[in-house]
Amino acid sequence: MTHMHIPDGILPVWLWVAGFILMAIVLGLSLLQLRNMDMRRKIPLLGAVAAAMLVAMSLEIFVIGYHVNLSVAAGILLGPALGFVAAFITNVMLALMGHGGITVIGLNTLLLASEAVLGHTVFFLLKKRLPVFWRAATATVLAQFVTTLLLIGIVAVSRASPALFGHEEEHTGAIRDSVRMFAAVVLSLGSIGWVIEAAITGSVIKFISQVKPDLLGHVLHRDTSAEK
Asked: What angle do CA 23, 114, 50 make, to 5 degrees?
């Protein structure tokens, strides 16, 4: 729900250029973090997680128009820096496949990476408070909610009607009403998707914590009694 399938030429130039600039800055800082990581271990994991995100985001739950992102799972497994890199790789590949224009890669990366960073942060803050499944599920719902609000904000400031992207001129009141309707739709239908994604992410992270806990060593509470 936080990936904009918007073709090129719809969003104002200042908005998508700003998205690219901010994305480039954060991506550069994230890549610098690779110096302090075990490359032989992290790079294969990055590739595997990015590939899983790409497959998940290529499949749509048609009833509610939602696709699973696995962005929070990526943030938990990779950490904020590599989670951002995974979001960038995924969005570039999706744009080349026609899932959104090239000009929205920057904004889409920022949205998807925000989910990864927020998910990682909430999962870490809930350490010792909830079992692994519920930590991951809660982190997913909160991250999805916040980034959906960011998506609505981007649509609002773009002054492009979500319902009539092809119109070059439109009354301000009509755009405002359309944004409100858009917000109501994505929040109502999106909440169903958040629950589905929370269940998937929680199950994935719980399974990994049981079979490969070293992948979660930076965020996993090792008190086994608390994980049951």
From this structure: 80
* Cβ atoms of residues 139 and 119 within 8 Å: yes
- Residue 61 phi, psi dihedral angles, 5° rounding: -85, 95
User: In total, how many domains does the chain have?
Assistant: 1
**Is residue 70 a contact partner of residue 139, using CB atoms and an 8 Å limit?**
no
Residue 68 has a pLDDT of 85
| Mean pLDDT, residues 145-154 | 91
Token couple for 159:
């002054």
How does pLDDT run across 172-196, given as a tens digit for each residue?
444 455 778 878 888 888 888 899 9
Domain housing 210? 13-227
Measured between alpha carbons, how far is residue 45 from residues 53, 78, 129, 206, 209 in Å? Answer: 12, 8, 27, 17, 15
Instruction: Give pLDDT, residue 216.
Output: 79
Amino acid in the structure at residue 49:
V
Query: What mean pLDDT value characterizes the chain?
Result: 83
Residue-level length of the chain: 228
At 86, which helix (H) or strand (E)?
A: helix 71-96
Q: How far apart are CA 132 and CA 180, in angstroms?
A: 36
> Does some domain include residue 105?
yes
Specify the residue for token string 């980034």: 147
Q: What is the CATH number of the domain that holds 165?
A: 1.10.1760.20
| Tally of CB atoms within 10 A around 57 | 21
Placement of tokens 């049981």 in the chain: 210
